[in-house]
Design a protein that fits this description.
The complex is a heterotrimer of chains A (about 500), B (about 350) and C (about 325). Chain A has 17 helices and 22 strands. Chain A is α/β, with parallel strands linked by helices and about 500 residues long. In chain A, helix 4 packs across helix 5. The longest helix of chain A is centred in the middle third of the chain and has 16 residues. Chain A is globular and about 70 Å long. The model of chain A has no long low-confidence stretch (mean pLDDT about 85). In chain B, the strands form two sheets. Chain B has a two-stranded antiparallel ribbon with strand order 1-4. In chain B, strands 2-3 form a two-stranded antiparallel sheet. The radius of gyration of chain B is 24 Å and the shape is globular. The chains are: A alpha/beta (about 500), B mainly alpha (about 350), C alpha/beta (about 325).
């Protein structure tokens, strides 16, 4: 049996802030629907209401024509509606099977029936194409596998309506392919799928129709085959979008590299990696998840045990024991893990922005007025959308948090900046802002290193792209060689 | 709930009304959350005010200047330690050893002063050296804690649980299980530090005030204070943001050690002695003052003002109980418990 | 009362002489091995207990080559129970002198040792089942309260206001308070204004006394009920500069207090009542001597509490003891 959903005038307010202004639309069963909208458009909130994590302030939710009220995710699950979060909800120390049945454990009398749970888990794992023992602790899985476990968990709960929020954000191309195959299979089984993504090419490929939201309102719906990607983007942003990427300046011809790394080894992750980047250059790092790109740079900063033959900044040898040393000498790093390593979400915007350059505001007493002026400037320059400057970072949407994180690592005025997945979970409009910003940084004479899993982004932005596989830097491609096929071939070792 | 006109004025509500829905006004939740936010900030102060009114009603002597000064002076030790503890807790740590540390510093300080007294002419310089020694010893103990925690990678709970026993055992050893008493000549010169007043306010209260003000300034207006909050809020983020997490942590425990030293410097002239019961359970009182004052035990955020109010609140409770006979003496701790929980309830955070 | 002590002393020296004479015959295996289980030194009084127990070990082992004494200190009742096990199985004691941490929870463990043939002397706190002990040696808690009350009543000429401090809620504390109240019944003009717990702790006593001073405008005497607490009380009075108080009466006869009385240093301190931790010394000594002779102790020996005044203070002054 499939599930048909209808929203009627859904209103949602958090305190004085209204995020949904009466959203109404219906979804037919057995289809794959793409839900589009910029960050802050209200997609996630609407989906949380549908899956029982939030309650609507006003309005009605109908399931198969029947008005329902979910007071928790369990109530929604009972109707077959399951949300797979952008950030996974898995207990890291439990096994896959324990996670799949968390809160729904099978029992035999007073005792847990582990055998039955493992059997059932193995079945759903096979269905999602994950060949791994259900007794493996989740901690040992890579991100893509966790994603599949989340889907398996939903299937084990007899999901008939599956909501996926940015499922491919952390997946490699081949993993994405596997997910799409799975989606097609689920659809064939009669499951309704709601697919939230900023990647319009994916939406175009796998959805039957698209629903567009903007500023907490329903804007449009259309059969996917009737709209182009460009039209989708325009609907989302509400205005005509020009080119996503800035025009590429030629690779600067400076003789001396700004940063030069030789023989960097991070045990277990990277082996003897050497590279250099010139002032004004944007160097990309491509590779599959687990290729060691993030770990390489964490090692460079002293966040992981590592050995290195030589690091030179502007021709002078440097030794960095920790990120503080690196920042003092002019290199800062934006982590891919925004909430875990990038931002203090419970801090105010001002405190986040100035954290890496506090000495500038300490005389020795901090000057909040100066910090505030800096924040006003950053909000303007980085296009951070916030109701009030006194907000906490957690009040910003994902894209705006990312802009804030970017502003933060650039605040000390680094000569070299390493941006790890700078547009993860960021919508089209904000994404374009970030690309232009990166380009501007390079034009100012800084060296920019971009680590990304999105090949188009690397191709559109970088002068050169280094490709890593299995902890080794396999090749460095320059602009003339940059194609998706070439990058994939090097990243997967099928060249 | 009937719709209220104020909400219909808002564009969002107007839109949904126009579509034909029945918008539910959110004024009630908004007013509720605002009241809660207010309570959150003022919970401890409100609790203190209620207690003071109750105290005055039960015994008119409660509101006398003498009694108020007695209570504030008594609060000074715990209060000063609580200010240091506030930093440690905000940074995500804990220190269980402060009571024992105070006892050992007091004992060591007295022994040093007694030893020096014969060879120095003026008792004042001996006391000066004693005070310097106490502060130094406090900072050194803090340094040891900080190094074990930040560089040694041991949980603060365990490190300080260990030193809790070590400090008190050494004091008991030095005191042979009895008391270490300051020579009476020194004691006479030193006692004004606790008993004397300046402008009608006892010295310990002035010191407490100064420590609280400087503490507030350091926490809110220096880079170090910001880093302390950043580490407690999310240590990983702080580390990635180029904060020298280890150094800041060590400094935080040293700051607390110095606060314990200051508290001890004020404590010793009161009785002129240190015994194995000195500072017993001070750690819990200091931690309770910090938490009652609205700081989260898991760290990240907290205020010095709240801590000061929390410390005063705790000593006011026992003061009121001593000033009246309406509650059985057997139930004193129960009353304290009820008040702590009620205040904590008033200022609990919304999830 | 004094005759009891004298008799004990004579008996002891006689035995000592006898045993020193036969010292050459002593075997390597001690005839009598006494295990002494006492609380660790956490405040003045227990500090004294530990000191006197070790003093007894030193003196007794020197005097009696056939005697061995093993002293164990415990920080809590469970630890003490474990030590009893160790004393029997590891140290192989045949006699036990115990200052129980708590009465109820240690009755069973002591009874077990007695069941294995160990001779048991219980000190200070009686066990709940007296059949678990062979002998009981204790200080006189009734006299502790009674002497204080009688002295204060006489000092105030049967008229005035008294405030009292109490220790930690225990039977021992109750016995003292009850004895105090029993005497005061005979003096209707003496009013006990309040009695609060200050945990035998100087700092707590200071705070409680400060609040008494705020609350009561006329106080004639303070029963501090402990010499440690008296220290805090005196400081609070000194700070408040109150002159209405004529006497502060402590208790236990600590070194400092006895010295104060002896020197007449403080007019508020004129007398004290003895409740010396030395009774652990007496208990070990009595037990050792009786066991060496193969005799039994009387079922109950009360080490009397005595009023200490300037006249007899000298007898109670032990400058080497920490208490």
């Amino acid at each position: 049996m499939s599930v048909a959903i209808e929203f009627r005038d859904i209103v949602k307010a958090f305190g004085p802030v209204q995020v949904l202004h009466g959203v109404s639309f219906a979804l037919q069963p057995g289809r794959v629907v793409g839900l589009l909208g910029e960050n802050g458009a209200g997609k996630s909130t609407l989906m949380k209401i549908l899956s029982g994590y939030e309650q609507a302030t006003a309005g009605e939710l109908l399931v198969n024509g029947r008005a329902v009220h979910f007071d928790g995710s369990r109530a929604a699950e009972a109707e077959g509606i399951v949300l797979i979060h952008q950030e996974f909800n898995l207990a890291e120390d439990l096994t896959i099977a324990q996670n799949i049945f968390l809160g729904h454990e099978k029992r035999r009398g007073w005792l847990l029936d582990d055998a039955a749970m493992n059997r059932e888990s193995a079945r759903v794992l096979q269905q999602v194409g994950l060949r791994i023992s259900p007794e493996t602790p989740v901690r040992q899985l890579i991100v893509a596998e966790k994603q599949l476990v989340e889907i398996a968990k939903a299937l084990a709960r007899k999901a008939r309506f599956l909501i996926m929020d940015e499922p491919t954000a952390t997946l490699t191309p081949s993993e994405t392919e596997r997910l799409f195959a799975l989606i097609a299979q689920l659809k064939a089984d009669g499951v309704t799928l709601l697919y939230i993504s900023h990647k319009l090419d994916e939406v175009e490929r796998i959805t039957d129709e698209v629903v567009v939201m903007r500023d907490g309102r329903f804007v449009a719906r259309a059969a996917t085959r009737d709209v182009t990607r460009h039209q989708m983007a325009n609907l989302m942003v509400g205005r005509e979008l020009s080119d996503l990427y800035p025009p590429k300046a030629p690779r600067p011809a400076a003789a001396q590299p700004l940063l030069r790394v030789q023989g960097l080894t991070v045990p277990g992750w990277a082996e003897g990696v050497s590279f250099e980047v010139r002032p004004g250059e944007i160097l990309g790092f491509a590779g599959l998840v687990g290729a060691g790109r993030t770990e390489l740079f964490e090692g460079l900063l002293g966040l992981r045990p590592r050995t290195v033959e030589r690091v030179e900044l502007e021709g002078r040898p440097v030794r960095w024991r920790n990120p503080r040393d690196a920042a003092n000498q002019g290199l800062t790093y934006l982590s891919e893990d925004r909430k875990g390593k990038g931002l203090h979400v419970h801090f105010g915007l001002r405190e986040n922005l100035t954290l890496m350059a506090l000495s500038r505001y300490a005389t020795p007493w901090l000057r909040p007025d100066a910090e505030r002026r800096a924040l006003e400037e950053a909000v303007k320059r980085f296009g951070i959308r916030t109701g009030t400057l006194d907000n906490r970072a957690s009040a910003l949407s994902g894209g705006n948090q990312q802009k804030l994180a970017l502003a933060k690592v650039l605040h000390p005025g680094p000569k070299v900046v390493v941006l790890d997945e700078p547009t993860r979970g960021v919508d089209v409009g904000a994404r374009r802002d970030i690309y232009f910003l990166i380009e501007a940084l390079a034009r100012e004479g800084r060296a920019v290193i971009v680590i990304s899993s999105e090949l188009l982004e690397l191709i559109g932005l970088c002068h050169r792209v280094a490709v890593m596989r299995g902890g080794h830097l396999r090749t460095t491609l320059d602009a003339s060689q940059l194609t998706e096929e070439e990058l994939i071939a090097h990243a997967t070792g099928t060249h | 709930m009937p719709p209220e006109p104020t909400d219909a004025m808002k564009p969002g509500a107007a839109t949904s009304a126009a579509v034909g829905g029945t918008p539910r006004p959110d004024t009630s939740t908004r007013a509720g959350s605002r009241a809660r936010a207010l309570l959150h900030g003022f919970g401890p102060i409100l609790g203190l005010i209620v207690l003071c009114i109750a105290g005055t009603a039960l015994n008119s002597d409660f509101a006398t200047l003498d009694n108020v000064m007695n209570v504030l002076t008594r609060t000074a030790f715990i209060g000063i330690i609580a200010v240091g503890m506030c930093f440690v807790i905000i940074s995500g740590g804990i220190d269980l050893s402060v009571g024992s540390m105070a006892a050992l510093i007091a004992g060591a300080m007295i022994l040093v002063m007694n030893r020096l007294a014969p060879s120095f002419g003026s008792p004042v310089s001996v006391i000066g050296i004693g005070i310097g020694f106490a502060l130094l010893l406090g900072a050194l103990f803090g340094l040891a804690h900080g190094l074990l925690i930040a560089r040694g990678g041991i949980e603060p709970f365990i490190v300080t649980l260990g030193t809790l026993g070590i400090f008190r055992a050494y004091l008991t050893y030095f005191a042979d299980g009895g008391a270490i008493t300051l020579d009476s000549d020194l004691s006479d010169v030193y006692s004004p530090v606790y008993y004397a007043s300046l402008l009608g306010v006892p010295i310990p209260v002035w010191v407490f005030l100064a420590v609280a003000l400087v503490g507030g300034l350091i926490l809110n207006r220096t880079a170090y204070g910001r880093y302390v909050q950043a580490i407690g809020s999310n240590e990983q983020v702080a580390r990635y943001a180029a904060v020298d997490v280890g150094r800041i942590k060590v400094l935080t425990y040293m700051l607390l050690g110095a606060c314990v030293g200051i508290a001890t410097v004020l404590y010793v002239p009161r009785l002129g002695s240190a015994s194995p019961t000195t500072g017993l359970l001070w750690e819990l009182e200091a931690i309770a003052a910090v938490i009652v004052g609205g700081t989260a035990l898991k760290g990240g955020a907290g205020t010095i003002t709240g801590t000061v109010v929390g410390a005063v609140l705790l000593s006011v409770i026992s003061n009121i109980l001593n000033l009246t006979s309406i509650i059985s003496v057997y139930l004193n701790s129960a009353v304290q418990g009820f008040v702590i929980i009620s205040v904590a309830f008033m200022q609990r955070r919304r999830k | 009362m004094k005759s009891v002590i004298r008799k004990l002393a004579i008996g002891a020296s006689a035995v000592a002489a006898l045993l020193t004479a036969s010292g050459a015959l002593a075997q390597t295996q001690p005839q009598v091995h006494i295990g002494v289980a006492i609380p660790t030194a956490t405040h003045g009084f227990t500090g004294g207990i530990v000191w006197w127990a070790n003093q007894a070990k030193k003196d007794m082992e020197k005097a009696h080559p056939g005697l061995k004494i093993t002293v164990k200190t415990a920080a809590g009742a469970p630890e003490q129970a474990n030590q009893l096990q160790d004393l029997l199985t590891v140290n192989k004691i045949n006699t036990l002198v115990i200052f129980p941490f708590e009465s109820a929870s240690l009755t069973k463990p002591v009874a077990q040792l007695k069941g294995k043939g160990v001779y048991v002397t219980v000190v200070d706190r009686g066990l709940t089942d007296t059949s678990a002990q062979d002998a009981y040696v204790a200080g006189d808690n009734t006299a502790f309260g009674k002497l204080a009350a009688e002295y204060l009543a006489k000092r105030l000429n049967g008229k005035g206001n008294i405030v009292a401090l109490r220790g930690i809620p225990t039977t021992l504390d109750n016995e003292r308070m009850d004895a105090f109240n029993a005497v005061m019944k005979n003096y209707p003009d003496i009013k006990l204004l309040d009695a609060r717990y200050a945990n035998w702790n100087r700092d707590d006593a200071f705070k409680v006394m400060q609040d008494y001073l705020t609350r009561f405008k006329q106080i004639d005497a303070v029963w501090a009920a402990d010499d440690d607490m008296a220290v805090g009380v005196l400081k609070a009075i000194e700070q408040a500069k109150r002159t209405d108080i004529k006497e502060v009466f402590g208790g236990a006869g600590s070194k400092g207090m006895v010295k104060t009385i002896l020197d007449g240093k403080n007019k508020l301190i004129q007398a004290d009542v003895s409740y010396s931790p030395k009774f652990i010394y007496d208990a070990i000594k009595l037990t050792a001597e009786a066991r060496l002779k193969g005799e039994k102790l009387p079922a109950t020996t009360i080490v009397p509490s005595v009023l200490i005044t300037k006249e007899n203070a000298k007898e109670f002054y032990f400058p080497d003891s920490p208490f």
